[in-house]
Amino acid sequence: FEEGLNWQLEVARLLAPGVTVYTATQALIELFREQLTLLRLRFRRGHVVVCGLGRAGFKVAPDSLRRGEQVVVVEADGENESIGMIKDRGATVLVGDATDARMLCQARAGHAKLLVVVCGNDGINVEAAIRAYELKQTAPRGAGPVLECHVHIIEPDLRALFKNHRVFTDTGERFRVVLFNIYDSSARLLLRRHPLDRDPIAPDDPRTVHLLVIGFGLMGESLVLQAARGSHFANGRRLRVTVIDRDPVPHQACLRRRFPKLDSVCDLTFL
Question: What pLDDT is attached to residue 32?
């Protein structure tokens, strides 16, 4: 190097073209990989499509893969750390919006046998299910099996509203929809495995069943509601429920507004 020149700057100048070529090559490789993935999907039928790769989606996808099923995942967040892990297990991942009909077409949702919508937001889940229904209705007759669509909805009011949509009222042979709530399902399973009256209660038993719930999030609420629905004991005594939460006032008001008859089946106290 000539005297007085900054050698680091000279090295950077010499390497710059190589870095540019390397970056362009990597971009072309990634583009080719994406196009190859889309090409392979054009022939996919009878597979499982999972919209959303949160905790629920990351549970559903590996379960399907273990059963030997082909799985396509649609995830909006390209930086989701679970993408690499689910790819390593054999799933195909498309980064995009599950409410976009074009993205569902790329995932071949119209030719899938099962669509599980767990995007982490009730509104997005409902919209994605509606787009899938419309996609299936416009597909040629005989294009793929009956699509069974499982939609995760937490909010009871939205669930009731969605049941009046044509997705439910149209009882065709192309599309079937099932609503589920992982918190309600988990609460039912918990109470089935650990029943509140695990010590049998006789008709003349003086005891009162008391359920203590610490923390009133989504799971806590589902647990209280499921316990209240099943609180039929031989001695006729009402279930006693105590909820301990950092900020119980808004939870208490909201719960009693949505379920006004709850106090008629159990004695509910918030602390």
Answer: 46
* Both structure tokens of 179: 């609503």
125 or 43: whose pLDDT is higher?
125
Instruction: Give tens-digit pLDDT for 105-126.
Output: 989 888 899 999 999 899 999 9
Rounded distance, CA 74 to CA 130, Å?
16
Q: Is 166 exposed, middle or buried (0-12, 13-18, 19+ CB in 10 A)?
A: exposed
Angstrom distance (rounded) from CA 162 to CA 196: 33
What digits encode the pLDDT tens for the residues 144-199? 678 899 999 998 888 888 888 888 777 667 888 999 999 999 999 999 999 998 88
β-sheet bridge partners, residue 268: 241
Given a contact cutoff of 8 angstroms between Cβ atoms, the answer to whether 72 and 47 are in contact is yes
* Rounded Cα–Cα distance for residues 271 and 264 (Å): 20
Look up residue 70 and give its two tokens: 């082909």
265, 238 Cβ separation under 8 angstroms: yes
Task: Return the DSSP state at 146.
Answer: P
Q: Cα(132)–Cα(71) distance, rounded to whole angstroms?
A: 16
Check if the beta carbon of residue 211 is closer than 8 Å to that of residue 267: no
Which residue is listed with tokens 């089946």? 265
* The pair of three-digit structure tokens given for residue 195, joined into one six-digit string: 């029943």
